[in-house]
């Protein structure tokens, strides 16, 4: 048994992997002095996915890491060998997670069924190798493309309140103490839409299973008619797997635990037949306050009157607590298995097309003058500079040809360039010669 925090809203950063660069390679074979181009393409960058996992009940495990970045694609190689695609990142989140874009607030997905998968960041497409650039005028192209950057974004993950165990009982029977004992519950979790009371929630981890325990405060005589907490919160726990009913077996406040049990059951019946029909265990708390003989008598009476399984506990000493928690975990696991089998979507991971942008060969060039320096810029100037490997002779030549085709010379003259001035293109400096 392990304690866990309840975390219901987090912000994470996700980024798809960059595509690998294409290769500018040539065949090297015996007796073939001038082999043709054989550079392969770069692999696509990995993707980032979210998947609804029915075994999780909190965003705690996701919150432990703030950035999720998929692997980059491998660069292409000679002999027309394409680079390997980058590995994907699959983030498991609880069922009921709503995914929003941090900047716009747009809802990207509502993962409300087990097995649902959504792609939240695409990888970049790999760059083309030099086999794609061979032409009648360029038989041995020393040119290849760089891979495209992956998609990146900030996400808000919000978890709808989904309780697995509904805790009921009269005030002062030890419900809040029970939740505190088995989890790292905070007194206030979030601003839920309830008028008088904030639900007390805790998350428990047993082996690979996480489950949420929610106190149902205000469930006393008249609660089903709107007294105390009212109906709003109760609707949230109607999907729970089990009701854990705590009674004060010691009766030190002068109340009869058996009568208390039936009072609460009556309210449950009035409020929701569905909730009242859930599997139920009875936790007989405060066993440390009475003698063993008296305890046995009271436990026997409670068993006989209710026909339910009774778990004697002392939240103060811890006696019996672990046994209760493992029983709750067993019931929740079975219930989740049933719901998973009936609701599971089991979506296959589908990759949309990787990120890639076709760049136009006709585009606008801007010239910024700073003293005797003339900076060549523009949206597509920058993007072509990123796309082509300017360290390659033919890559740089193609880049400059594109600029000339789009009027670089005339734009420089319009800006007032003179012989000997400095031209900056893609972070490279040249002396202008008329």
Automatic annotation (TrEMBL):
Keywords: Cytoplasm, GTP-binding, Hydrolase, Magnesium, Metal-binding, Nucleotide-binding
Biological processes annotated in GO: ribosome biogenesis
Top-level EC class: hydrolase
Domain Obg: residue ranges: 4-162
GO CC annotation: cytoplasm
The keyword Hydrolase belongs to this UniProt entry's keyword annotation: yes
Keyword Transit peptide: no
Residue positions binding GTP: 169-176, 215-218, 285-288, 314-316
Predominant location category: cytoplasm
Subcellular location: Cytoplasm
Short name of any one Pfam family annotated for the protein: DUF1967
Cofactor needs: Mg(2+)
Molecular functions (GO terms): GTP binding; GTPase activity; magnesium ion binding
Highest taxon in the source lineage: Bacteria
UniProt cross-references to InterPro entries, sorted A to Z: G_OBG, GTP-bd, GTP-bd_Obg/CgtA, GTP-bd_prot_GTP1/OBG_C_sf, GTP1-OBG_CS, GTP1_OBG_dom, GTP1_OBG_dom_sf, OBG_GTPase
Residue ranges of domain OCT in the record: 355-434
Residues involved in Mg(2+) binding: 176, 196
Domain OBG-type G as annotated: residue spans: 163-333
Family listed: Belongs to the TRAFAC class OBG-HflX-like GTPase superfamily. OBG GTPase family.
Function in brief: An essential GTPase which binds GTP, GDP and possibly (p)ppGpp with moderate affinity, with high nucleotide exchange rates and a fairly low GTP hydrolysis rate. Plays a role in control of the cell cycle, stress response, ribosome biogenesis and in those bacteria that undergo differentiation, in morphogenesis control.
Protein name stated in the entry: GTPase Obg
């Amino acid at each position: 048994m392990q304690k866990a925090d309840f975390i219901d809203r987090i912000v994470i950063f996700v980024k798809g992997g960059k595509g690998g660069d294409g290769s500018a390679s040539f065949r090297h074979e015996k007796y073939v002095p001038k082999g043709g181009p054989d550079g392969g393409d770069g692999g696509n960058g990995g993707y980032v996915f979210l998947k609804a996992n029915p075994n999780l009940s909190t965003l705690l495990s996701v919150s432990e890491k703030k950035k999720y970045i998929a692997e980059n694609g491998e660069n292409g190689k000679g002999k027309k060998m394409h680079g390997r695609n980058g590995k994907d990142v699959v983030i498991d989140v609880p069922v009921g997670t709503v995914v929003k874009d941090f900047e716009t607030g747009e809802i990207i997905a509502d993962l409300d069924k087990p097995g649902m998968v959504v792609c939240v960041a695409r990888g970049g497409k790999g760059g083309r190798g030099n086999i794609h650039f061979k032409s009648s005028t360029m038989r041995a192209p020393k040119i290849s493309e760089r891979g495209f950057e992956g998609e990146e974004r900030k996400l808000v993950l919000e978890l709808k309140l989904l309780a697995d165990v509904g805790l009921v009982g009269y005030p002062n029977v030890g419900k809040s103490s029970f939740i505190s004992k088995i989890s790292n519950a905070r007194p206030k979790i979030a601003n839920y839409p309830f008028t008088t009371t904030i639900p007390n929630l805790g998350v428990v981890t047993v082996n690979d299973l996480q489950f949420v325990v929610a106190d149902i405060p205000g469930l006393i005589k008249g609660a089903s008619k709107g007294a105390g907490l009212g109906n709003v919160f109760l609707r949230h726990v109607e999907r729970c797997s089990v009701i854990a009913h705590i009674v004060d077996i010691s009766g030190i406040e002068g109340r009869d635990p058996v009568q208390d049990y039936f009072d609460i059951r009556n309210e449950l019946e009035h409020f929701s037949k569905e909730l009242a029909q859930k599997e139920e265990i009875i936790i007989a708390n405060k066993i440390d306050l009475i003698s063993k003989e008296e305890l046995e008598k009271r436990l026997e009476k409670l068993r006989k009157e209710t026909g339910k399984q009774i778990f004697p506990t002392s939240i103060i000493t811890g006696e019996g607590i672990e046994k209760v928690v493992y029983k709750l975990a067993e019931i929740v696991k079975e219930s989740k298995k049933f719901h998973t089998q009936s609701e599971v979507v089991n979506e296959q991971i589908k990759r949309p097309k990787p990120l890639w942008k076709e760049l136009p060969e006709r585009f606008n060039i801007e010239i910024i003058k700073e003293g005797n320096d003339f900076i060549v810029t523009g949206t597509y100037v920058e993007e072509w500079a990123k796309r082509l490997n300017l360290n390659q002779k033919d890559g740089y030549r193609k880049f400059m040809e594109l600029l000339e085709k789009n009027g670089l010379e005339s734009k420089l003259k319009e800006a007032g360039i003179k012989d000997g001035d400095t031209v900056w293109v893609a972070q490279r400096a040249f002396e202008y010669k008329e």
